[in-house]
């Protein structure tokens, strides 16, 4: 299995962990009735960690829209190279840091992780184009 595919699996595992943590954190903040209800009202200021976790999940979906096609294109075209490999590894490492720092409210490191992840996606795209 290529480093890009391993990175994709780690990214998906991180995303799954976020999805599993979200209702647990929300239940602690808002109660089980809110979690099992239709959630018609957004998470408000009395549950800041739950709100940040929700935004982390949403941002991870946006990141997946860019990362998954890059990995799949690299695999299908057989263009795995140092840029696509290290881009995928750095991207996933940055996303793990992002997933930990955003819910905890660690702003500076979160921003650094997001920027590193975006730069890693650019490196992957460049590696894909260069073949």
From TrEMBL:
Subcellular location per the Swiss-Prot or TrEMBL entry: Membrane
Transmembrane regions listed in the UniProt entry: 61-79, 112-129
Keyword Transmembrane helix attributed: yes
Keyword Coiled coil set for record: no
Top-level taxon in the UniProt lineage: Bacteria
Keywords: Membrane, Transmembrane, Transmembrane helix
GO cellular component, one term: membrane
Chief subcellular location: membrane
Protein name per Swiss-Prot or TrEMBL: MAPEG family protein
């Amino acid at each position: 299995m290529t480093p890009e595919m391993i990175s994709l699996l780690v990214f998906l595992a991180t995303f799954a962990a976020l999805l599993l943590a979200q209702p647990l954190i929300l239940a602690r903040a808002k109660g089980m009735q809110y979690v099992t209800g239709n959630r018609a009202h957004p998470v408000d200021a009395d549950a800041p960690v739950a709100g940040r976790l929700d935004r982390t999940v949403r941002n991870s979906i946006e990141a997946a829209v860019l990362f998954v096609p890059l990995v799949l294109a690299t695999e299908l075209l057989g263009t795995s190279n140092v840029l696509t490999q290290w881009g995928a590894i750095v991207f996933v490492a940055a996303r793990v840091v992002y997933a930990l720092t955003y819910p905890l409210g660690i702003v500076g490191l979160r921003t650094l992780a997001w920027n590193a992840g975006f730069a890693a996606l650019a490196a992957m795209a460049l590696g894909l184009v260069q073949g």
